[in-house]
Design goal:
The protein is α/β, with parallel strands linked by helices and 326 residues long. It has two domains: 175 residues, Bordetella uptake gene, domain 1 (D-Maltodextrin-Binding Protein, domain 2), CATH 3.40.190.150; 116 residues, Periplasmic binding protein-like II (D-Maltodextrin-Binding Protein, domain 2), CATH 3.40.190. It is built from 13 helices and eleven strands. The strands form three sheets. Strands 2-1-3-10-4-11 form a six-stranded mixed beta sheet, sandwiched between helices. The longest helix has 24 residues.
Length: 326
């Protein structure tokens, strides 16, 4: 009997030790980072830059796998099916991890229960752009013009419920504006029609609008982040231009792992990402593609920010009557 219990206890101790040993050995095989957008996008470019740095610091290959589809939700859905061992990670944005949770009838994951944020490392601000023929040259002038215009000014976005659309609705709500939304199928179409004068204004991604701003085909009035973006240092934050100190309407990039990933692995990855994304060279590279690099906050602070973003955009989707509309 003693022999039996001794053997059983030994087996139990070995079983319990195995996960701990796996954590100590981490990583001992390649790591995959899943990107929910196509290769060549700004997000993809930045992920490939820090994947190389992670590979150097961790000593194992870090593979970038593109998995676009289902409004960035395919990658998130797939992450729920992989082992929570730190070998498959995912980058995502406010669309899949805040807005879509309320906008879509069916979301095949529970963002809060299924994932843990590893690192919040850049904001993806929007630029408030107008057709150069519009008389408004500042945000206060635009607000005044929007209040007086009859018929209302119209604005474009790449689709109902996307971040650019909701950012404009957030502005309308904050300042009591009446403007008409003109949804398009994609970002290039929505911006091209501002250039052509078919619509007057919109919030646009920096990467897509910067060349047209520099050519004088669009006028930039403000950026939607609380601080200026390096690629447009003379364009003020909307919060400052409109004297609305807390106004911010940005997307963001976060690196996630399955929620059950062991804490030592999560902490290790967080520390590595903080070191990499705090490096001035990496921050400069992020800025060149229109992103706003930040020093990653703690995981606890990231979770608080993520919760506030889910509440902010989820509430707005409901107020606009768009809950479950997609």
């Amino acid at each position: 009997m003693k022999l039996f219990w001794s053997g059983a206890l030994g087996a139990l101790a070995l079983t319990l030790a195995m996960p701990a040993q796996a954590q100590q050995d981490y990583p001992n095989k390649p790591i995959t980072i899943v990107v929910p957008l196509a290769a060549g996008s700004g997000m993809d470019s930045l992920v490939r830059l820090y994947a190389d740095k992670l590979q150097q610091s961790l000593g194992k290959p870090v593979i970038v796998e593109n998995k676009p589809g289902a409004a960035l939700m395919l990658a998130a859905q797939d992450l729920t099916t992989v082992p929570a061992d730190g070998y498959t990670l995912m980058v995502s944005t406010s669309s899949a991890m805040a807005i879509n949770l309320t906008l879509y009838k069916k979301v095949n994951y529970d963002a809060v229960k299924d994932f843990i944020p590893i690192s919040y490392y850049v904001k993806s601000p929007f630029i408030l752009i107008v057709n150069p023929d519009l008389p408004a040259k500042t945000v206060p002038e635009l607000i005044e013009l929007a209040k007086k215009s009859n018929p209302p000014l119209n604005f474009s976005s790449p689709g109902a419920g996307v971040a650019q659309h909701l950012s404009m609705e957030y502005m309308k709500q904050r300042f009591g504006l009446n403007m008409a939304h003109v949804p398009y199928r994609n970002t290039p179409q929505s911006i091209t029609d501002i250039v052509a004068g078919h619509v007057q204004l919109g919030f646009a991604e920096a990467g897509a609008s910067l060349p047209l701003i520099r050519e004088g085909k669009l006028r930039a009035l403000a950026v939607s982040s609380l601080t200026p973006i390096p690629s447009l240092p003379d364009v003020p934050p909307f919060a400052k231009a409109a004297n609305a100190p807390d106004f911010e309407a940005v997307s963001w990039h976060m690196l996630f792992a399955p929620a059950a990933t062991p804490k030592p692995i999560v902490d290790r990855l967080h520390a590595e990402m903080t070191k990499i994304m705090s490096d001035p060279e990496m921050q400069a590279k992020a800025a060149t593609i229109g992103l706003l690099p930040i020093t990653p906050p703690s995981i606890a602070d990231t979770q608080k920010y993520w919760a506030s973003e889910r509440e902010k955009w989820g509430s707005l989707v409901k107020q606009l009557g768009l809950e479950g509309s997609q």
